[in-house]
Structure formats: C-alpha cells, structure tokens
Amino acid sequence: MTGRFVSRGFLGRPRDTDADRAGRIPPGQYLTDGFPVLSAGPTPQIPLGQWAFTIEGLVRAPVRWSWEQFLALPARDWTVDISCVTKWTKLDTRWHGVSVDDLLAAVELDPRAQFVTAHSFGGYTTNLPLTDVVNNQAFVAYQYDSAPLEPAHGGPARLVVPHLYFWKSAKWVRGLRLIEEDEPGFWESLGYHNRGDPWREERYSGD
After folding, report:
1. What's the confidence (pLDDT) of residue 206?
2. Which of 171-189 are b and which e, b meaning 16 or more Cβ less than 10 Å from the residue's Cβ?
3. CA angle 140, 177, 65 (to 5 degrees)
4. Over the stretch 53-83, which tens digit does the pLDDT of each residue have?
5. Sequence-separated (6 or more) residues with CB below 8 Å from residue 203
6. Checking DSSP bridges between strand 115-120 and strand 173-179, what pairing results, if any?
7. pTM of the prediction?
8. Would you call 186 helix, strand, or coil by DSSP?
C-alpha cells in the first residue's frame, strides 16, 4: 500500500504526551497516581437517611434536598485535574455529581449575594467567591471512579472546585450559604490563602 489509508483530520485525538501532562501540573506540585487522604478532623459517618443538602442565606426562599431528592437531580460525569496545597496533583480524576449551577437554579438569589460559604458535617467550612462556583466550575460529587464516594474522600458527597486548591472542595458538604461579605472558612482563618489558585501558588495568606 503506497497511499495513506485515512486522510488528514481523521487521525483521532492527539496522544497524551509527557509534555502535555507536565503542562497540566501547577508550579511547585508533583504528580501522584494515588489519592492521598488529608482531613482536619475525624471522618464523619453520615447515614444517608440523615443526609440533607441546603442552599440558604441571601436567597428568596431556602431549598433543601434529602439524599433521594438529590440523586434525582440532573447529574453528569466530570473528569478534572485536582491539586492539594500539600503539593500533590492528580490528573484525570473521574466524578459524577450535580453542577452548582443547577443547584443555584433552584433558588432566587438576592442581588447582594457575592460569596458562598460551604458547610460540612463535622463543622468544616470554606469560603468562595460566587464567581468561582458558577459557569460549571464546581459540582457536588457523590461518585468517584463510578463507585459511591468513600467517606475518607468526602462521601456521601463533597463539593469539588477543581481550579482551586483542594481544601476548597469541602468534604462531607451539607450546604451552601450565600452571603454579601466574604467570611474566612476553617483553613482560611488559620492562615491559608483566601482564594487558593494553584497556578498562582496561593497557598498561604500573603502569597
């Protein structure tokens, strides 16, 4: 055979080269194939019958979903890279969950709402500008690698905000509170950076 069997444009997806992968690792991070477990306290064990997710604060009327109601919401698969402030990065993590956009569509936001505090079972909180969780930048995941999310990784459900350091992806999340003025969360009150962009190495206050 002397000619090309397929024409240009039908050669498929370009290979995922080492250079491509290196370009996805933020500065100061190393690549891991594992999934390290880091938590600020003990892992809560949350019976699904007691689980609920609430959006409250600067909304016309709060909304609350039980576990069964949450599973009935529109959901999709997400494949994202994640980076922890402790310097590991994991590529192509696969999740299933509900976009924060779809959750916020269930409430009428007060125009004063500019920030979000994510609340978790166990008392953990983290703060985010509203602009960092809309436009399909964030989701609440309840599956990882096609299996129920393990408690050690935040199950039954966790917030995932992949473009920020992973402490912003609150484990065991139970709700979002819309607020007007920014309020530091757990780690932010202890000196971590208020926003946490891994590409800017925003690890600690002052970075």
Report:
1. 84
2. bbbbbbbbbeebebbbbbe
3. 50
4. 999 999 999 999 999 999 999 999 999 999 9
5. 85, 165, 192, 193, 196
6. antiparallel
7. 0.89
8. helix
